[in-house]
Q: What sequence folds into this?
């Protein structure tokens, strides 16, 4: 399964097939393959394990995709299927479009699948369906919340928590977040309490810490940070406390500045303290302080600690601050050539991901598009980096924000 979220422009350039499922009748299915790049007409050959049937009686059928149309006769055990999942075995390369019945069935019944690999593969496919606007983000988040109540495979829990976090901040409107946020916090806190392993508890707690939006949720997070609440079975180290302090500050909780100062005084590790002090101004309540912090990044010496820079950028562009930080997008794009020249090989990609990851408005998307349109001789590698980083921004800007 192609797990990366590429922009449509990058998909066309890189060459990922579009594959549509067509249920012909109760015994026959067809897969229609097309090349997304107009005029090229490529066809990809690949092996797939198609899963078909019902949630309680599913059959895996091997299939080889070769031509524009590949027919598949279902065995008696999979006749009259309620769903057909072409990526059921976790294999398959392409942009898969499910049939309407399968899409609806998965949203309602996916947690009933017995095989954890099948569940994981189905969630990956549903995520891409959501990215392509065939599944509403609210439906995806609601289904994922239901699934988290019963999911017992750690890898799937990590997958779901990551997807929900991304969908919550990027693909939901403010009103939808307000509606779903309290229930999502409850689901994540229940996961913390229910989990037996410390790693699963940490996954749920990290998700909670990242999406908390209600006053009660912020109060609980602050109590954990102040050591007034203890989560049995979860040991929180110095980096965890630092992240809690930063998450509280970006939410502008009462005494946010005092929390940051107290956290600075808690550090025993001097390197962690130095990193925290570097990031702190990016979370200031004062716009001019955040402006000054960003202006520092234009100096290569102030970009020497690249992980520190990236953490600060992520908080500077946090969705809760996105409307105030959109003005930094264009100068960040303008710095990218220098970032490539002076930084680590992976720094340009991470720089753009940190810059664009918190945005979902049409105006932010238009800033990126205009920059690329104006830079006709721009280095192709950097153009691709920008397109990849802007993928979810482009997708979300058409449905979420003006």
A:
């Amino acid at each position: 399964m192609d797990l990366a979220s590429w922009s449509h422009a990058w998909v066309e350039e890189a060459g990922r097939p579009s594959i549509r499922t067509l249920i012909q009748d109760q015994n026959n299915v067809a897969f229609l393959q097309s090349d997304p790049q107009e005029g090229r007409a490529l066809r990809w050959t690949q092996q797939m394990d198609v899963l078909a049937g019902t949630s309680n009686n599913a059959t895996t059928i091997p299939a080889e995709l070769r031509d524009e149309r590949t027919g598949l006769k279902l065995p008696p055990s999979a006749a009259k299927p309620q769903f057909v999942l072409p990526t059921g075995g976790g294999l398959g390369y392409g942009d898969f479009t499910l049939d309407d019945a399968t899409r609806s069935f998965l949203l309602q019944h996916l947690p009933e699948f017995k095989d954890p690999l099948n569940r994981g593969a189905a969630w990956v496919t549903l995520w891409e369906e959501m990215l392509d606007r065939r599944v509403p983000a609210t439906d995806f988040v609601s289904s994922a919340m239901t699934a988290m109540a019963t999911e017992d495979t750690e890898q799937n829990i990590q997958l779901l928590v990551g997807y929900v976090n991304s969908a919550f901040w990027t693909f939901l409107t403010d009103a939808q977040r307000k509606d779903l946020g309290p229930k999502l916090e409850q689901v994540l806190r229940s996961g913390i309490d229910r989990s037996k392993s410390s790693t699963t508890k940490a996954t749920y707690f990290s998700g909670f810490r990242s999406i908390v939006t209600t006053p009660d949720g912020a109060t609980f997070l602050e109590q954990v940070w102040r050591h007034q609440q203890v989560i049995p079975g979860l040991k929180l180290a110095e980096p965890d406390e630092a992240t809690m302090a930063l998450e509280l500050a970006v939410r502008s909780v009462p005494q946010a500045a005092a929390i940051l100062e107290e956290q600075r005084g808690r550090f025993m590790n001097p390197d962690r303290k130095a990193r925290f002090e570097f990031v702190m101004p990016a979370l200031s309540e004062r716009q001019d302080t955040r402006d000054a912090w960003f202006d520092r990044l234009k100096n290569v010496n102030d970009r020497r600690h690249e992980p520190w820079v990236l953490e600060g950028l992520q908080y500077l562009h946090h969705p809760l601050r996105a409307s105030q930080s959109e003005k930094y997008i264009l100068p960040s794009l303008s710095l990218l050539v220098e970032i490539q020249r002076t930084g680590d090989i992976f720094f340009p990609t991470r720089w753009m991901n940190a810059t664009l990851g918190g945005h979902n408005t049409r105006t932010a998307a238009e800033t990126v598009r205009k920059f690329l349109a104006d830079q006709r001789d721009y280095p192709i590698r950097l153009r691709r980096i920008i397109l990849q980083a802007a993928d979810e921004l482009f997708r979300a800007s058409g449905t979420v924000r003006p």
